[in-house]
Amino acid sequence: MRAVFLLITAIWLTACAEGTIPEAPADKVLINADILTMDPENPRAQALAIRDGVFVAVGSNEKIRNHIGATTEVIDMRGQTIVPGLTDSHYHLRGVGERELTLNLAGARSLDAMLAQLKEYADAHPDAPWITGRGWIETHYEPQVFPTREDLDTVVPNRPVYLTRADGHAGVANTRALQIARVGRGTRPPDGGDILRNERGDPTGMLIDNAQRLVTRHIPSDTGIDMTEALKVGGEVAQRQGWSGVHSIVSDWDEVEALRALYQEGQMPIRNYVAIRWPSEGAERLLNEGPTILDAFDGKLTVRAIKINLDGALGSRGAALFEPYADDPNNTGLLTHQPAELRPVLERALRNGVQVWTHAIGDRANHIILDLYEEAFQRVPVEERAVADPRWRIEHAQHLIPEDIARFAELGVIASMQPSHAIGDLHFAPARLGMERLKYAYAWRSLLDAGAIIAGGSDAPVEVGEPRIELHGATTRTDLSGYSGDGWHEEQAVSQES
Question: Is the pTM of this model over 0.85?
Answer without folding.
Answer: yes
